[in-house]
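User: Okay, second chain of the day. Same drill as before: sequence in, structure tokens out.
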Amino acid sequence: MASLTPEDAVWAADQFISYYTQFNRIDEYFRHVKQSRLDKSSGTLFGPEDDIFSDFSVHPNDMKFSIHVVDTSNKPKSKYTQQMYSEVLNLTASNAIEEAIPGRTLKWIVTEDTTDKVVGVVRFGSPTINSKPRNDYFGKVLSLSQINKEFVMGFNIVPVQPFGYNYLGGKLLCLLASSSYLKQQFDEKYGTDLKYFETTSLYGSTKGVSMYDGLKPFVRHVGDTESNFLPLFHDDYFNEMFWWFNNNANGGERLISADKSSKKLKIQTKMISIVKKSLQDEGKLEEFNAAIEHAKSLTERKRSYMGFFDYDKDDAIEWWRKKAAKRYDKLVSNKNLRTQLELWGDKQDIDIIR
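Assistant: Same drill. Structure tokens below.
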């Protein structure tokens, strides 16, 4: 295995220690990465205020919705393009978004029709291969062929804000995502025979509840994930450390072959192994190991949910409408209705856990 000089090993260990000990909760990590990307952004390419739902005088009982499959072609024929999807998602989502995701994918932009405004976006993709809640639910580890044929994951289910807060927008999107409407589209695109929809909460035990709670019988909490993965270095910092390790620990060769899957995770895992092997200072090694364990503790256990495509999108909307009307009326009565768009990069102190 590649190794570092004692001096370089201490330097590398200090980079890990400094990076991870600045965070005490996973939302602090997400906010740090999100703000870092915004600081480097040149701004949006369209006026988001003109496309995002902002008329909070509209009552849930008067709303109608449409689902638009994102046109990802090089010459889109629809206005619901990858550019619009990305900008709405990045302006709204609390976590930093990874755009280049391999494997199957389908993306939605959901609009409210009386205003013709965007209320949220959803991205579907191939499910995680190993899932403790899934294994526990079925009482066994399912075969890879069954997982790929029968399961789909909702990775980004993101209502614009404060539509999400005022109208239970996250619940609406999740109900649509686990309806037969999604099954039909995904099966037609990929030749699957979907039976199960899965998603997980973003923050785990940082927040005791999730926007996916309270959706029975359509979507059910089926258990909690394990909590033993490391939040990764982000963007430029990751690249700097990657090339530093290549040059100083691996003779200029890549740490991980370019054809490996999950390269970023495997690269950072190898960095950690090299540091542990190379550190000769026992006190520094103890400090380094403590920082890595602290970083793993940030991720917490996430609540996992499953749906079964046993209702259509109109049923979902009507079920949501009753809940949303009650929520909206209560907020209006208590004068707690939020009326300002919550967009990252808009100089607002956004409540990242929402």
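The CA atoms of residues 213 and 318 lie 18 Å apart.

User: Thanks, on to the next one.
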